[in-house]
Predict the structure.
Amino acid sequence: METSHPIPDIHACDPYLIANHNHTLSPKLAGEFPSRLLETAEGMTPFSDRLARLALLSKNVHLSDEQNTILSHCLDSIESILDPRQGLTQEIAKCRPKSVRTECAKVVIPDVPSIRHDSTDVGISSTKLASIKELTTILSEVTELGDEFKKRREESLQIYDLCNREIRRMTRAVSVLEHDVHELQTELWEETAEREGLQGDRVQVAEEWAEAMDTT
């Protein structure tokens, strides 16, 4: 909320802000100025900081026309002290837009927090880059392992196919051998039967011959 503050009369202002048109202090103030300056020099706030603070305070203050006039006179006096080119300064001040005056009155303060944030961001960026590099390396290794696994899988499939082929071939060979064995067994049995038959006939002939001899 904007508030109105009373501003003292220009004649009640600090006498050190009042100068004549030749940019020199009045004789009365000239004699007092050195001694007062020595008394207040120690621990005195720089006038640039005071002006900057007043510029910041003026943003939130609503002034009446009379107060604006008084402040304008005070500012003219300050400008006449700080700038020896009084006429040029006043002309510039008259022609200067209000927004420009406000912008010129702003204090440029180093943004220390932003610098800290920048440092933090740089640290975070470095950490991110390191993490990305590490992840990229891991991804490359995983990709190589995947390719190697595919090769091993293809080799395993080829070996499995060869084994199946060999098993089928050996199965057929065993079947053929079993058939041959069965045939050999059959032939052996037939020959054995024939041999036994021949032996039986011979025994019978021998018995008959022996009986014939006995009867004679």
Notes: The chain is about 75% helix and 0% strand. The radius of gyration is 61 Å.
